[in-house]
Amino acid sequence: MLSDRDRLLSTFDYAHNEMQLQHDFIVRMPHILLCRKTRLQQRHLFLVEMKKAQYNPSKPMYVSPLALVSGTDVEFCRDIAKTSVDIYNAFLKTF
Asked: Backbone phi, then psi, for 58, in 5-degree steps?
């Protein structure tokens, strides 16, 4: 379906151009392309706000893009952002 293709391309475009993920990196973690773009965008921008958006595995404080799109908001906040879901929900209201 064209809408599925468009959605996939939109998510790819965001992951590559906004999050600066390289093509080979996306190929190794294709599951990130199955995530809704809005979810990826919200979580990424929250990590940017928290100064924790670091997707290079060779650097400290690495965040796996696969972990970024997996799990519930509570798990994301606890395991990745290391903050409360209340803070994340307050951030989403400004989105």
From this structure: -90, 0
SS3 for 59? coil
Per-residue tokens: 29: 């973690």
Question: 45 with 88: CB under 8 angstroms?
Answer: no
Q: Residue 58's domain spans which residues?
A: 2-93
With beta carbons less than 8 A apart as the criterion, state whether 21 and 65 touch: yes
Instruction: Count up the domains in the chain and report the number.
Output: 1
Tokens at 8, concatenated: 């996939």
CB 84 within 8 A of CB 77: yes
- 23-39 tens-digit pLDDT: 999 999 999 999 999 99
